[in-house]
Amino acid sequence: MKPQRPTRFTLLSGGRIVDPATGRDEVGDLLLERDRIVSLGRIPSPPREDVETLSVDGLVVAPGLIDMHVHLREPGNAEEETIWSGSRAAIAGGVTTMACFPNTEPAVDNDAAAEFVVLQGKRAGLANVYPVGAVTLGREGLRLAEMGGLARAGAVAFSDADRTIRSAEVMRRGLLYAKMFDLPVISHCEDPDLRGVGVMNYGKVALRLGLPGIPDVAEDIVLARDLLLAEITQGRLHVGHMSTRGSVRLLREAKSKGVAVTGEVTPPHFALTEESLLNYDPNFKLVPPLRTAADAEALVEGLRDGVIDVICSGHAPHSLEEKELGLVYAPPGAVGLESLFCVSYTVLSERYGFPLIRVLEKMTIQPAKILKLAGDRGSLEPGKVADIAVFDVSTERSIHASRFQSKSRNTCFEGFRGKGSAVHVFVGGRAVLRNGEFVEASGTPSAP
Amino acid sequence: MVPTEDNAGRRLEWGRKDLLGLEELSRQEILTILDVAEGFREVSTRSVKKVPALRGKVIVNLFFEASTRTRISFELAGTRLSADVINFTGSSSSTVKGETLNDTARNVEAMGVDIVVLRHPCSGAAYQLSRVLNASIVNAGDGSHEHPTQALLDIFTIRERRGRIEGLKVAIVGDVSHSRVARSNIWGLQKLGAEVYAVGPPTLVPRGLTKLGVRVSHHLDDLLPEIDVFNMLRIQTERQDQGLFPTIREYSRLFGLNSERMRRVKPEALVLHPGPINRGVEITPDVADGPQSVILDQVTNGLAVRMAVLYLVGNRMAAPPVVASSGARE
Q1: Complex ipTM, two decimals?
Q2: Taking residues A87-95, what's their average pLDDT?
Q3: pLDDT tens-place string over residues A260-280
Q4: Which sequence spans correspond to the domains of chain B?
Q5: Superfamily assignment of B27-146+302-318 in CATH?
Q6: In this complex, do B128 and A321 lie within 8 Å of one another by their Cβ atoms?
């Protein structure tokens, strides 16, 4: 099918425009010209003919979300997700930009692999897809990967994904070397020995269920080490998926000392607790594990006072057959792209009273700054790329995995009722989601 | 000749499809099992050791972990109830690679099995199966989670010897952290009013266990004079290989029950062991075979308890005929 030639101008009229980068939260109009935002505010009926007007009355107009922690399983595990299916999941959730973690097969530890991820993203033609390059070759924690090549191929950060870099010296070198490209190292804070064979949080629930536990200090110890390394190297450290109150405290202390560090959290970790595992449901087996109510509260406080900068999905698709192995053998992780905003908004705004703009900030301008994308993305300022998500924050809906675009169904939020579904999504000025439906001709299946 | 009333003439209540653990059972349900077991114990003393309670029913013993005594006990219990009993022994590793536990179980169910007795190395396996199958699941040990029939036979044995559970001080000695026997005992004993102590080194008996309502002690000698029942868990040599304690020799010195320690215990104190015994490690031979040991009673009672459990879950659908025709409905 021949793509329709987009009109030159698009006017989103009458929406509640929320732009955390500028602090704007007011009803108004937003005018796009081709792939850019040209103006916003009260825009009188445009004089031109080639304007398509879309009424977004009663809806929230926000920068397209930036999810800086996803696993799209390509290359290597296309049965769980592909960059194409993951891109569709992203758009369905209002996410227009993703950073894809390198724990693929093979690992994204060289420029060719990074370019493949970028290329598959372009073939999918939906969201902006950026690779996260590995810190070390094969993610083995021994020798540094060619970070320069990875950065040139489009990497926006470095991480060994779900493996903690065991050697403090290798971590130190990684932080130092990444400074050349002014990109962050995203650390997975989990001491492998303290984790052992643990499958859930160490605590009362694990003791009751007879399951080996992962103590919270497994996270805190590695984070303390990495913060000290960030301090001496003056490198940029970003703390991946925080889960403990201890790590919130450590991050707060480091920030108050002026260490260049940022942190992220995923919705399950602040919205749920270890009690979710009482039914041995493998979909609640995560890394790091769901912790206690006190930890979840501390994470919310960290988000509130700005110690935690980012909310990301940690989208980790797994096939049904893998999760059917049962809690002990099933791999950890849950999908999250399609519930990211809905759960974050519902829990943080409705339960904890966060202003909407504070919630959006963690998924737009903050990750844009960390990944050095803020020149183009993460805001609605005139001149920026027109990546826009329009959300309905007044209608309550249920999350059902059966309706997901993702190839996998392993959600922590089956049946969750909340507000914040994506209605319209624009990427680079092009409408890819209209009234919750994918616009035809956007997104052809990925070629091999 | 099936028990439908307890000694006081109350109708025995049982509405569960499965027996997954003692944590979820009420005090009354535990008493029901114990009382039904009393009735079945007599069967073993007859010349014809069989009742027709489960005639026509099929029981499969689905064992993914090596076990001799538990499997034989269940097999004999099913046979004495006149059920058809099949044994399936699988290795869990092969099911990890290929067929999942759910698939194996669905296949078994497709053959018309009524009760699945499951032993599996993963905590939660019995719970997982109970949600997939219509057949009744009896947990014969899942990982470090629960081993309800073992705890029930322990409790049955204590009650038989001491006449009560309420108020007794029971010490569970050994690797409580990894023990399904310990967990089931903790829930069952607490529900019946006992005071439970967990005793062992902090690497095997962490303080966190107090969250389960037990008292934690790392010094067996301090407790000897006040404990009514010692339940000595089998110590796995692999825990030494994992470095959780230095040596078996030191473990035995600190936590083994020997004749010297027995001199300091109450004269009526009981010694239990779920077996198989590491003689000379957690318990010395003279104590294992001594007058305060009830280890072989446990084995005998295990049969009656397992008959009771199979009988109760096997008859959940229809009320026992005696009760149905008595018209004694409230």
Answers
A1: 0.83
A2: 98
A3: 999 999 999 999 999 999 999
A4: 27-146+302-318, 148-298
A5: Aspartate/ornithine carbamoyltransferase (3.40.50.1370)
A6: no
B219: annotated active-site residue = no
**Average pLDDT, stretch B97-116?**
81
pTM (two decimals): 0.90
The model's confidence at residue A31, banded by pLDDT at 50, 70 and 90, is very high
Name the packing angle between helices A217-233 and A168-178 (round to 10°).
Answer: 50
Residue A336 · residue A315 · CB < 8 Å: yes
Task: Using a CB–CB cutoff of 8 Å, tell me whether A278 touches chain B.
Answer: no
d(CA A364, CA A309): 10
| Lookup result for tokens 């072989």 | B296
Between the alpha carbon of residue A155 and those of residues A78, A180, A231, A263, A316, the distances in Å are: 21, 13, 24, 19, 19
> CA-CA distance, B253 to B245, in Å (whole number)?
12
For residue A202, the chain B residue with the least C-alpha distance is: B208
Q: Tokens at residue A297, please?
A: 């509260």
Report yes or no: A212 at the B interface, CB cutoff 8 Å. Answer: yes
Which residues, 6+ apart, have CB-to-CB distance to B189 below 8 Å? B151, B155, B165, B168, B170, B196
Q: Which two tokens stand for residue A105?
A: 């097969």
Distance CA B62, CA B65 (A): 9
CA torsion A106-A107-A108-A111 (nearest 10°) is -60
A436 touches chain B (CB under 8 A): no
CATH class of the B148-298 domain in this structure: alpha beta
Report the interhelical angle of B69-80 vs B295-314 (nearest 10°). Answer: 50
A63-370 to CATH, choices 3.20.20.140, 3.10.150.10, 1.20.1250.20, 3.40.30.10: 3.20.20.140
Using an 8 Å Cβ cutoff, are A121 and A87 in contact? yes
**Token pair recorded at residue B145:** 């989670």
Q: Active site residue: B71, B80, B147, B183, which one?
A: B147
Residue B322: what pLDDT?
37
- What are the residue ranges of CATH 3.20.20.140 in chain A? 63-370
Size of chain A in residues: 448
pLDDT value at position B6?
A: 55
In angstroms, rounded to a whole number, what is the distance separating the alpha carbons of residues A113 and A105?
10
B69 is catalytic: yes
Any residues with CB less than 8 A from the CB of B128 and at least 6 apart, and which?
Answer: A280, A326, A327, B101, B102
The fold for domain A9-61+384-438 equals Urease, subunit C; domain 1 (2.30.40)
Place of tokens 């829930």: B187
Query: Sorting pLDDT into bands at 50, 70 and 90, what band is A88?
Result: very high
Torsional sign, CA B166, B169, B175, B176: positive
